[in-house]
Specification:
This protein is mostly helical. Helix content is 79%, strand content 0%. It has one domain: Serine Threonine Protein Phosphatase 5, Tetratricopeptide repeat (Alpha Horseshoe), CATH 1.25.40.
Length: 140
């Protein structure tokens, strides 16, 4: 029996939280994105997994899609800014500013982004681009 997109997404999130590797989870989230191409959360997760695997160009494409679908999602903006830094692309400031503005307006989102960055640095320590994004958003 085929899982629903929602079940597949939720299961993928639980597997990630349980410590499963991004490499194993990328195909799961690619399937979710294929089956639900207008799901910003799915594209945001896929971008994050690519970033954790050091696949900046794939992360950049997924993050751009996520931001296009939901321009007010600070995590999508953080992913895009990080992917741009990892890829050597210009234009990062706009995404940092939007993420910062949304997080000021919605404190719960600020907390989620802080937790996400901490998770990223625990899975990929000394990640220069993510550390820069963290410093811009939350101070050094």
């Amino acid at each position: 029996m085929t899982q629903t997109v929602e079940t597949l997404f939720d299961t993928g999130i639980e597997r990630y939280k349980a410590g499963e590797s991004p490499e194993v989870l990328i195909p799961v989230f690619k399937e979710v994105c294929d089956r639900a191409p207008k799901s910003s959360p799915a594209w945001t997760c896929l971008a994050w997994l690519y970033l954790l695997e050091g696949k900046a160009s794939s992360a950049l494409k997924a993050a751009q899609r996520a931001v296009k679908l939901n321009p007010q999602d600070p995590q999508a903006r953080v992913n895009l800014a990080t992917a741009m830094l990892d890829s050597g692309k210009a234009g990062v400031r706009e995404h940092i500013e939007v993420a910062g503005q949304v997080m000021m307006a919605v404190p719960e989102l600020k907390e989620e982004v802080q937790q996400s960055i901490q998770d990223g640095l625990s899975r990929r320590p000394e990640w220069p681009s993510l550390i820069r994004v963290q410093n811009w958003l939350f101070g050094a």
